Amino acid sequence: IRCPVKECDEDILHGKYGQHLSSHKEMKDRELYSHINKGGRPRQHLLSLTRRAQKHRLRELKRQVKAFAEKEEGGDIKAVCMTLFLLALRAKNEHRQADELEAIMKGRGSGLHPAVCLAIRVNTFLSCSQYHKMYRTVKAVTGRQIFQPLHALRTAEKTLLPGYHPFEWKPPLKNVSTNTEVGIIDGLSGLPVSIDEYPVDTIAKRFRYDAALVCALKDMEEEILEGMKAKKLDDYLNGPFTVVVKESCDGMGDVSEKHGSGPAVPEKAVRFSFTVMNIAVAHGNESKRIFEEVKPNSELCCKPLCLMLA
């Protein structure tokens, strides 16, 4: 309630109105302004009422909001009420609460996207159990699910693996399977094995090259589209595209030393990978480059093809 005393104009909570009024010593007839309770219960705070009582007390305001929404906002009462609430929060400098509410209104929710949670887990070197512990703690302490559960992260992870995206070669390639759902295959399959060539035991897991390439390009979809937009080539979505790839093989050093436990064993890990260097699209008689890797020697842009332990 706004105080009616001249040069005061202060906003007071309903319950503290009488107490505030008694502080104005200069008012002789202050009784005129204090709340008159005509018997019965004292007026309760709006939020402590039952839903039915809230509806009853606000029915006039609700009718006005409905009339405004129908006239100005195409009948969207929810949008009008939400906006009023946001403005009230921001007027009181409660911006964090307002931001969260706005995120929920726009369908984003206040939680993080599973892919973002996966990136956090990988970049902070958390094991699955460590991440799960953090997820449970945050949920218990804040009462909100900010981080996503592990199963959501695993689903997000699948989209990053070769074999997730279906594709088709036109024309079909000779001696290459048409099956696009390729998981991890034996790293030495297709190589003629003889005792002389492999004096050491090797464990290798690799992806099929074409499936890995499709996965890498799908991962770069946004960059490709942005590059086409920048060159004003929106009509050329069907290509043909030319993709230049650099292959690399990297020895990953003595594995036993890295973990620092147990005796030094002569184990070597080797990674075969490729990097997408640039992508061009045919435009008339020339080809226009729509993507170029700025750090071609960085391991961050390496797409692993095969991991082998020898």
Automatic annotation (TrEMBL):
The keyword Metal-binding applies. GO terms for cellular component: DNA recombinase complex; endodeoxyribonuclease complex; nucleus. Its EC number is 2.3.2.27, 3.1.-.-. Residues 1-28 form the RAG1-type domain. Its main location: nucleus. Residues 39-106 form the NBD domain. Its cofactor is Mn(2+); Mg(2+). Keywords: Chromatin regulator, DNA recombination, DNA-binding, Endonuclease, Hydrolase, Metal-binding, Multifunctional enzyme, Nuclease, Nucleus, Transferase, Ubl conjugation pathway, Zinc, Zinc-finger. One of its GO terms (molecular function) is protein homodimerization activity. Belongs to the RAG1 family. The NBD (nonamer binding) DNA-binding domain mediates the specific binding to the nonamer RSS motif by forming a tightly interwoven homodimer that binds and synapses 2 nonamer elements, with each NBD making contact with both DNA molecules. Each RSS is composed of well-conserved heptamer (consensus 5'-CACAGTG-3') and nonamer (consensus 5'-ACAAAAACC-3') sequences separated by a spacer of either 12 bp or 23 bp. The keyword Nuclease applies. Catalytic component of the RAG complex, a multiprotein complex that mediates the DNA cleavage phase during V(D)J recombination. V(D)J recombination assembles a diverse repertoire of immunoglobulin and T-cell receptor genes in developing B and T-lymphocytes through rearrangement of different V (variable), in some cases D (diversity), and J (joining) gene segments. In the RAG complex, RAG1 mediates the DNA-binding to the conserved recombination signal sequences (RSS) and catalyzes the DNA cleavage activities by introducing a double-strand break between the RSS and the adjacent coding segment. The lineage of its organism: Eukaryota, Metazoa, Chordata, Craniata, Vertebrata. This is V(D)J recombination-activating protein 1. Binds 1 divalent metal cation per subunit. Mg(2+) or Mn(2+). It is found in: Nucleus. It catalyses: S-ubiquitinyl-[E2 ubiquitin-conjugating enzyme]-L-cysteine + [acceptor protein]-L-lysine = [E2 ubiquitin-conjugating enzyme]-L-cysteine + N(6)-ubiquitinyl-[acceptor protein]-L-lysine. It comes from Pterocles gutturalis. Homodimer. Residues 39-106 bind DNA. GO terms for biological process: adaptive immune response; B cell differentiation; chromatin organization; T cell differentiation in thymus; V(D)J recombination. Coiled coil: none annotated.
